[in-house]
Amino acid sequence: MKTVAAVIDEGSTELELRELEVDEPGFGEVHVKFVASGLCHSDYHFIDGVLGGRTPIVLGHEGAGIVESVGPGVTRLQPGDHVVGSFVPTCGACRYCATGRSSLCDMAADTMNGTFPDGRFRYHDAQGRDYGSLCMLGTFSERATVMERSMIKIDPWIPLEVAVLVGCGVPTGWGTATEAGGVHFGDAVVVYGIGGIGINAIQGAAFAGAKFVVAVDPVEFKRETALKLGATHAFATAEEAAASVHELTWGQGADQALVTVGVVDEKVVSDAFDIVGKGGTVVVTGLGAPEDRTVHVSGAVMTKWEKTIKGSMFGTLNPHHDIIKLLRLYDSGHLKLDELATRTYRLDQINEGYADMKAGKIIRGVILHGK
Question: Is the pTM of this model over 0.70?
Answer without folding.
Answer: yes
